[in-house]
């Protein structure tokens, strides 16, 4: 998939060094529920075991050809936000040097287009942990609206319990936002 500034493509083993560069930053993973990467080998293993799954994409800057983040659609049993086959969850993270440049909103708009137009989804859900105001803001910019808050959300990779907030956008609302009738 392609946008003005970005390519969304599958992760490759050769992305491990660049992935480590951004995923090792303690400002990135922990707020999203996963520990910082510990080395290039750790990043390589995460590419092969976690990121090399359907509907998980490296966010690649066209001007450099390098990944700066990740965006995914969690389908079927990969999400706990819905049990419906025509609904999914969006997840994402972005390297700190690229925060505040509209990159995640650009990638998010493309992944929503893909979810609704190519995959036929009726709703897309997204969650963020209490305090992750950047993620909340991305979801708002994508047109997602508040659905509910859960007080005790397990975060297994961090061995924690957190407060989680959930937003949603329907196909109808997305079409309306895009001016599609």
What does this structure look like?
With 181 residues, this protein is an alpha+beta fold. The chain has a single domain, classed as Aminopeptidase, CATH 3.40.630. Helices cover 31% and strands 30% of the residues. It has 6 helices and 7 strands. The chain has helices at 16-23, 29-32, 40-51, 103-118, 133-141, 171-178; strands spanning 6-9, 56-61, 67-74, 87-94, 123-129, 145-155, 160-170. A 7-stranded mixed β-sheet has the order 1-2-3-4-5-7-6, with helices on both faces. α4 (103-118) links the parallel β4 (87-94) and β5 (123-129). α1 (16-23) crosses α3 (40-51). The model has no long low-confidence stretch (mean pLDDT 96).
Topology:
Blueprint (H helix, E strand, L loop, with lengths): L5 E4 L6 H8 L5 H4 L7 H12 L4 E6 L5 E8 L12 E8 L8 H16 L4 E7 L3 H9 L3 E11 L4 E11 H8 L3
Parallel strand pairs: 4-5
Antiparallel strand pairs: 1-2, 2-3, 3-4, 5-7, 6-7
Helix pairs in contact: 1-3
Instruction: State the helical fraction.
Output: 25-40%
Fraction of residues in β-strands: 25-35%
Uncertain spans: none
Strand ordering within the main sheet: 1-2-3-4-5-7-6
Largest sheet: 7 strands, mixed
Q: Give the CATH topology.
A: Aminopeptidase
The global form is globular
Distance between the termini: 23 Å
Series of H and E elements: EHHHEEEHEHEEH
Q: Which CATH architecture would you pick? A: 3-Layer(aba) Sandwich
Radius of gyration: 16 Å
Number of strands: 7
Q: Quick one: CATH superfamily?
A: Gcn5-related N-acetyltransferase (GNAT)
State the domain count: 1
CATH class: Alpha Beta
Number of helices: 6
Average pLDDT confidence is: 96
């Amino acid at each position: 998939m392609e946008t003005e500034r970005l390519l969304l493509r599958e992760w490759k083993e050769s992305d491990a060094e660049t992935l480590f560069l951004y995923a090792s930053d303690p400002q990135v993973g922990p707020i999203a529920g996963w520990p910082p990467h510990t080395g290039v080998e750790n990043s390589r293993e995460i590419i092969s075991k976690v990121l090399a799954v359907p509907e998980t994409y490296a966010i690649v800057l066209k001007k450099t050809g390098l990944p700066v983040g990740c965006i995914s659609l969690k389908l079927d049993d990969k999400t706990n936000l819905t049990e419906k086959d025509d609904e999914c969850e969006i997840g994402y993270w972005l390297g700190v040097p690229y925060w505040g440049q509209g990159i995640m909103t650009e990638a998010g708009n493309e992944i929503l287009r893909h979810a609704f137009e190519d995959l036929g989804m009726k709703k897309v859900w997204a969650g963020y942990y209490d305090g992750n105001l950047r993620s909340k803001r991305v979801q708002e910019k994508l047109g997602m609206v508040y659905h509910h808050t859960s007080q005790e959300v397990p975060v297994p990779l961090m061995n924690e319990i957190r407060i989680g907030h959930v937003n949603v956008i329907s196909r109808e609302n997305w079409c309306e936002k895009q001016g599609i009738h």
